[in-house]
Amino acid sequence: MNENRGSKIQYILSSGAKLGIAQTVLLLLLYLTGTMFKSGLSAISWLIYAAVIYYTLKIYRDRFMDGYVTYWKGVGFGTRISMWSGVIVGFFYFLMIKVFDPSMADSMIAEAEEAYLAMGLSETYVESMQDAIQRAANPWVLFFSSILNGLLYGFIVSLIVSIFTKRKGDPFQEAMKDVS
Questions:
Q1: Residues 96, 143: contact at Cβ < 8 Å?
Q2: Is 34 left (phi over 0), alpha (psi -120 to 50) or beta?
Q3: Which of 6, 15, 35, 109 is the most exposed place for a label (fewest CB within 10 A)?
């Protein structure tokens, strides 16, 4: 049983790594094309979440759960791997701002200000929000907010994906499994 539990944990971690790497590759491509903060292409991340969670949850169900998984176990699985992917994405943001491109934080601040102005907020109000905007571009804040975003996105996507991957077993067989 411990070996199976260890394998499950290892699979959850590796699935989170796959999702995190896929998200990081998308962010890197958006960064290299200069559209990281300006494009609707970041919506592709929702598709990546859905595809990776669906694929890895099906394998998890068939390999570790004897072909059966309840709706909420599927949601839990997707949320856990999304949290681990958030760690990887947060690490990406942290490295980008601290090591590779410190000016990225300035770009994030400028984009946030432009977005607030485009929403119709006054310049004086946006200027009064300057401290909060700068705090949000801090590498540590980005790291932890990426984890929280991963949890939230993963939970939302898992709520939908688990509808299609759930499979209930025979209740009689499950009850009789413990009877000798």
A1: no
A2: left
A3: 6
